[in-house]
Amino acid sequence: MKITAEFITSAAGPADFPADGVPAVALVGRSNVGKSSLINALLRQRIARTSAAPGKTRLANVYRVARGSSGPIYLLDLPGYGYARARRGGQGQAAPAFDEVAQAAFEQNPAALLLVDVRHPGLENDRAAWRWVTSTVERCAIVGTKIDKLAHGQRIRALREIESVLEDSVLPVSAVTGEGLDELWKLIDRLASNRNSINPRSRRQASIPPKETAPRPRRK
Ligand code: GTP
Ligand code: MG
Question: Which of 25, 90, 102, 185 is 20–30 Å from 71 (CA)?
Answer without folding.
Answer: 102
